[in-house]
Amino acid sequence: MKIIIPMAGKGSRLLPHTLNTPKPLIYVAGKTILKRLMESLSKLIQVFSIQEIVFIIGNFGEKIEKQLIKLSHDMSINPIIYYQIIPLGTADALFKAKKSLTGEPIIVAFSDSLFYHNSFDKEITHDNIIWTKKVKKPHLFGIVKCDPSGRITHFIEKPNNHISNLAIVGFYYFKNSLLLKEELQFLLNHNIKNEQEYQLTSVLENMRRKGEKFISKQVEEWMDFGDKKRTISSNSKLLSIESQNSELIHKKVILKNSLIIKPCSIGKNTSIENSIIGPYVSIGEYSKIKNSNIKKSLIQNYTIVQYANLKHSIIGNHSIYIGEKTKKVSLSDYSIFK
């Protein structure tokens, strides 16, 4: 079995934060989204003795590639990297890894989702599996419709009408990767697009119509980082869950005349002075917060924030923000706002 992680998208819905940093490498509660995803896969890697992990990336540069290689080696798994330079959709991205689709079972895990789910390994049997979660706004997602046994009867990408509220969460098991490759090839050969992109949902529906059986399994918790609003919401959910069992404030945080309203995550050597932080705030390492009130926000690493009143905001790495009025702020890496 292999694991494939497509992560080549531009992250346009999370701009400006993805101008310099690929979305999977944004820090949330002290770790990148990608590292958290790979940690959640560690049990699967052990149970199924998985030896190979495949990354599909854009033109991220040598520094990012070295991070992926190190992260893989730290988990004792061999990394392979393919490239999708022009983002033409999820199906096109997967087809870039066609040399690795040779017939064995595969896990596909998209890099803008995180999960709390203890049964992945137990749920993998002889059927293809699509993991799902009930959502309030199914028109924003690819969704599935099932019969009473859980067998999927339809795949629909962002339906206009309410057909089902089971959203595809970006985690898949294919029992035969060669069949997947053949259907990906068919989609591209016949130029079958949805919203100008080649969508994996279309591939799944074609496979189903040709007789492939897909089962829906619901995850316990799903955190989606597709856009700014969902990233902030998912940060809050993650902090709520992890704070129950872990101390998320590093011992080397410097606090002066400040109040931390938990749950919050604060990285090492960050200093906070004359400020109220929280609830639901993630602050990275080596940042400096002074004379500020921050809640429901993400502050990345090596960042300076002063005289700020922030809510539902994201401030990038190596940035400086100085302000007074209450604001929702989106400030990219290496930016200055005074």
Short description:
22% of the residues lie in helices and 32% in strands. By secondary structure, it is of the alpha/beta class.
Low-confidence stretches: none
Assigned CATH architecture of the largest domain? Alpha-Beta Complex
State the domain count.
2
Number of extended strands: 29
Question: Which range best describes the helical content: under 10%, 10-25%, 25-40%, 40-55%, 55-70% or over 70%?
Answer: 10-25%
Descriptive account of the structure:
- Helices cover 22% and strands 32% of the residues.
- With 338 residues, it is an alpha/beta fold.
- The chain folds into two domains: 2-224, Spore Coat Polysaccharide Biosynthesis Protein SpsA, Chain A (Alpha-Beta Complex), CATH 3.90.550; 240-337, UDP N-Acetylglucosamine Acyltransferase, domain 1 (3 Solenoid), CATH 2.160.10.10.
- The strands form six sheets. Strands 1, 4, 5, 6, 8, 9, 10, 11 and 12 form a nine-stranded mixed β-sheet that branches.
- β4, α3 (62-74) and β5 (78-83) form a beta-alpha-beta unit.
- The termini are far apart.
